[in-house]
Amino acid sequence: MIVIYHDVGGAHSTAVAANIHINKLLMNRIPSKQEILSLPTFDKIEKEQVGHLVYIGKDEFNAQIYTLSRQRKPNLVISVVTDMYNILHGNTNELIIVDTKPAVNLLMNIGGFTSRRLHWVSFGRPIVTKGTQQAYMDLVDMVKNVKKDLKKHKSN
To answer: Is 4 in a helix, a strand, or coil?
Structure first.
């Protein structure tokens, strides 16, 4: 199985969701700022990584977990990923693609934009981190739903 968490920038909600998924962040509490900032890809995706899958790790179901910065072309990028997987595997039964954008709040948008786009990291990073803490339980719920699907798939 392959799970891809995607959104516009691929540096915040996706990084957190993927790390919740591989159990690096706990589901039962909101992490500290330091726990979030210590994630290898949180607020660190560079221009060269946009449009590329970033491997985060494996989960307890042996699924490979990735993140993706797909910018503002979700239909185009996700269609290409799905089609390529289908060409290589003959189906998409073992591919789960999750848009984390619904969990993104205003603070995450403002902080992410100023940190990643404007390169005002010292200004934007604390804002996006605070917004991420506020959105954390929504991201946990997304991951729980994905894991429920994975568990169901493994039992079939």
So the answer is: strand
How far is it, in rounded angstroms, from Cα 67 to Cα 133?
19
21 part of a folded domain: yes
Domain assignment present for residue 29? The answer is: yes
Number of domains in the chain: 1
User: Mean pLDDT per segment of 10 residues, for the chain of length 156 residues?
Assistant: 94 97 97 97 89 94 95 84 93 94 96 92 96 98 96 81
pLDDT on residue 30: 98
149 lies in some domain: no
Whole-number CA gyration radius for the chain:
15
Domain that holds residue 87: 2-102
User: What letter would DSSP give residue 60?
Assistant: T
Report the candidate in 15, 8, 28, 26 with the shortest Cα–Cα distance to residue 57: 15
Whether 148 is covered by a domain: the verdict is no
Q: Which two tokens stand for residue 6?
A: 């995607």
- What pTM, to 2 d.p., does this model score? 0.94
Question: Which two tokens mark 133?
Answer: 């803490």
